[in-house]
Design a protein that fits this description.
Bound molecules: alpha-D-glucopyranose
Distance between the termini: 53 Å
Low-confidence stretches: none
Structural class: alpha+beta
Largest sheet: 9 strands, parallel
Number of helices: 12
Length: about 725
């Protein structure tokens, strides 16, 4: 690792791969203690990679196989160049590292566009011209465009211009800010309240390769169980055993697919985590076993606030073992949350995470299949919940956590809680993949959990915002993400609910959820017409499970987002750079929802190449803007020419029956798809028990390559359905 010094400012450059470079700065040559919460690998754990150093009178140049890093001798400023000598990620000034400021200023290149920044409000995809703060916050106010701090903090930006994409991850968990050309239109500046200047640059040049770099450093979503890709139904709160049973029955009677029921805080005994309410949920084991027989999984909420109740085992144990966060004066920190007076586990500690992970046994023993980690910014109310919620704050910033303070640990509180949950479940359920969901998180949270966008409203604006939000989360590394379908706060109208379910049924994480003060928002609450729309779109999701599951596999291997902004596949088409309201699901399906009331039309941009209207098979030549006609029953969907889309039968839940027949919709053109299959719920795939089938279409002819891997799918028929080809008839073959 070459180290350079400029005016007592030391710079360490680590070439981790030819496309992944780490830069660290230290005043007086002293590098701070390494914090490795988010990254998967320390520098020394990367395989050695070749680079050479060239020195000129003006510059020191480090060349990797893909790019060059230039350090100016007189100023210490850095810039990067690609193989075409194009400059990127260039310092505008030398980084400032004093006891009060820690900041880096980069010049914005002509035509450079910025994305990522984790979870954000406001319905724009491209994010130039604003300031973004990274500080995990219980955003209890409506998520309007003026809201800057959200539940998740991911200090990553993703830069796009023709033929040159890269990303930057600021490896600093203190409160930080990215000023994206707001103060100075020619500058993107990142700064933090403490810690070091330590950042990584991921070079593409394509978006896919950028995500691959992010995955190498910050990890990927492990492959979820297939049932977790089904529809999840939630509400704050289903208050009793009977209510949950009734809910489950409704789904099956109405034949609306659903796999998961979420148990919100009311299942607990006085909001004491890891307990069950003694009268309303008398026999949770039986309830969950009965649900399971009907094809439902149970996911229970867990909050970090532990009720300060001397008679409660979690509080007693945590106190005895010294597991709770302490104030500067050494006393345990107390704050109000749902159970009123509460204390908080210090998730930065390995022993505390292990303890918390094991506590989940009280739930898994009853048959619970997943944990929903909530309120883990963490949220702390200004007064008891029993007296009304009051304002939300957090733990005192000078409270101690491991060998640091909450100021540094705050942004990773939710991240570390999700880690405790994920790692604990892995031990408790060694043969079954579990599901974890978290509200708060940090860069790299995908290693442990799916995420959702918190307490949105039943507003058209929030339906709209969910598109760029999910895309930017995917670019930031978190693909398994969705918004509460129908909106959490306020009451959805039938029309809003129908439109939201259309697009929500294709969110990577598809869950309907609503607030205890809002109307019930299950799919049948809005009349028959809307119920049918919900059924039809959820069925579409379930038929597409082979496609979606393959995308999740790809994401688990390479960090490729499931939902992708249009530029992901058309990075050189600048018309895609601001398209916030249409999304690619994988590289074959384009979804363009309606997000306005009383509206049955919208403009859709179809980039270069040929496209098919999913509903009518009409062939449309791109690049073009079209007006899509979309009465309430229709959400505009398009398929790229050369696509092969695998799908399965209609299902009431993901594992209801074997994937038979397997249908391949083949669209004229050139392309390919990799179908991934395994048993859908165990870890056998980690030992190679999975099957990969490459489906290739050339000259409009489909070639099914020989299946690779050790998993044998059920014996089945394969139905091949041609689209846009001379030959119209469907063909059936034995697999
Ligand atoms: C928070 C969560 C919400 C949940 C509620 C009650 O507001 O964001 O999803 O329903 O708490 O647990």
């Amino acid at each position: 690792m070459p180290t350079f010094t400029f005016d007592r400012l030391a710079l360490a450059v680590s070439v981790l791969t030819p496309k992944l470079i780490r830069l660290r700065y230290a005043r007086n040559g002293k590098f701070a203690k390494r914090r490795a919460w988010a990254v998967t690998k320390d520098d020394s754990e990367f395989a050695p990679t070749q680079s050479d150093v060239n020195e000129t009178s003006q510059e020191i140049i480090i060349n990797t196989k893909a790019i060059s890093i230039h350090i100016q001798r007189d100023t210490g400023k850095i810039h990067f160049t690609d193989s075409q000598n194009k400059i990127f990620c260039a310092d505008d000034a030398r980084p400032s590292v004093t006891s009060v400021t820690k900041s880096v200023a980069k010049s914005v290149a002509t035509g450079e566009h910025f994305y990522g920044f984790g979870e954000r409000t406001y319905s724009s995809l491209e994010r130039s011209g604003c300031i973004y703060t990274h500080w995990a916050t219980d955003t209890a106010v409506p998520h309007t465009p003026d809201v800057d701090r959200m539940y998740v903090a991911i200090p990553i930006y993703f830069s796009v211009r023709p033929n040159l994409d890269y990303a930057v991850y600021f490896n600093n968990t203190y409160r930080s800010q990215f000023d994206v050309g707001y103060t100075d239109p020619n500058q993107i500046r990142f700064s933090a309240d403490g810690g070091e200047i330590d950042y990584y640059v991921f070079y593409g040049p394509t978006p896919r390769e950028v995500n691959e770099g992010i995955a190498q450093l910050l990890g990927t979503h492990p492959l979820p169980p297939r049932w977790a890709l089904g529809y999840h139904q939630s509400r704050w709160g289903y208050k009793s055993d009977q209510e949950i049973r009734k809910l489950a029955k409704e789904f099956r009677q109405r034949e609306i697919p659903c796999d998961v029921i979420h148990f919100d805080i009311d299942y607990m005994d006085g909001y004491r985590v890891f307990t069950w309410h003694p009268t309303r949920f008398k026999n949770p084991k039986k309830l969950i076993a009965d649900l399971r027989r009907d094809g439902f999984r149970a996911v229970t909420i867990i909050d970090p606030g532990v009720k300060a109740d001397k008679k409660y085992f979690v509080y007693q144990e945590g106190l005895k073992k010294n597991y709770f966060v302490k104030k500067q004066n050494g006393k345990v920190f107390h704050g109000y949350v749902w159970p009123d007076d509460s204390v908080f586990a210090d998730f930065t500690r390995d022993d505390v995470r292990d303890w918390w992970g094991e506590l989940q046994k009280h739930l898994t023993d009853k048959g619970v299949s997943g944990i929903w980690n909530d309120m883990n910014e963490p949220a702390v109310f200004s007064k008891p919940f029993s007296a009304g919620v009051g304002n939300t704050g957090t733990i005192d910033l000078d409270a101690k956590q491991s060998d640091t303070t909450h100021a540094e640990a705050h942004n990773v509180f939710g991240y570390n809680m999700a880690r405790a949950s994920y790692e604990g479940l892995r031990k408790l359920l060694p043969d079954e993949r579990a599901f974890t969901l978290t509200r708060s998180g940090f860069a790299g949270m995908q290693k442990f959990s799916a995420g959702w966008s918190g307490d949105n409203h039943a507003w058209w604006e929030h339906l709209e915002t969910s598109l760029p939000q999910a895309c930017n989360m995917g670019l930031s590394g978190v693909s398994f993400f969705g918004a509460d379908i129908g909106g959490f706060n306020s009451d959805a109208s039938p029309e809003l609910f129908a439109r939201w379910m259309q697009v929500g049924s294709l969110y990577p994480f598809a869950r309907g959820h609503s607030h205890t003060d809002s109307i019930y928002q299950e799919p049948w609450r809005f009349g028959e017409r809307v119920e049918k729309i919900c059924r039809d779109y959820l069925r579409l999701r379930y038929r597409l499970l082979p496609y979606l599951y393959s995308l999740f596999y790809e994401s688990s291997q390479h960090g490729t987002p499931i939902w992708r902004p249009m530029f992901y596949h058309y990075p050189n088409d600048e018309r895609t750079y601001h398209l916030h309201d249409q999304v690619m699901i994988g590289d074959s399906i384009l979804v363009a929802p309606i997000y306005k009331a009383n509206c049955d039309r919208r403009v859709v941009y179809l980039p270069q190449g040929e496209w098919f209207d999913y509903w009518t098979d009409e062939k449309i030549a791109g690049a073009t803007h079209i007006t899509a006609h979309a009465p309430l029953e229709v959400m505009p969907l398009y398929v790229r020419a050369g696509a092969v889309i695998p799908s399965g039968p209609d299902l009431n839940y993901a594992d209801e029956k074997p994937l038979s027949p397997l249908t391949l919709d083949v669209y004229a053109g050139e392309g390919e798809f990799t179908l991934y299959e395994d048993d859908g719920h165990t870890f056998e795939y980690e030992k190679g028990v999975f099957a990969i089938t490459r489906l290739e279409i050339r000259d409009s002819r489909l070639k099914i390559h020989k299946r690779e891997g050790n998993y044998a799918p059920p014996s089945r028929k394969i139905i091949i359905r041609p689209h846009g080809m001379e030959r119209k008839e469907t063909v059936e073959v034995e697999d």
